[in-house]
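Hi R.,

Here's the chain you asked about this morning:
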Amino acid sequence: MRVSRQLRTPRCLDTVRPGAEPSTEPRIRTGDIVSHQGHVTSYLNISDARVEDSGVYRCDISNDVGAVWHSARLNVYGPPFIRPFPNISAISGQELVLNCPVGGYPIKSITWQKGT
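And here is the predicted structure, written out as tokens:
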């Protein structure tokens, strides 16, 4: 699930599943509130949260002089699951960071294994 909007203001997306299509679910909404002073608050509203909504959500903002982002993890109580990993290529001698896209809460342990 990727939730994004093309705005001049912030956009929020689910970084657990990069490249996913924008959400068309009516229970997931984004919007913006602009104060009288012109300050923008962008929000992501999930009605009837489900365990599969668990993940890291990130809000990216930019303008002509820079860009910043903020991310936070949403934990929804339920059975644990792992989203599928894409195939990954790496360059020998370079650092590689893999994130385990887990959901469910609480997670008691995560174990990494090679070749199983």
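One quick note: Confidence is low (pLDDT under 50) at residues 4-12, 14-21.

Cheers,
M.
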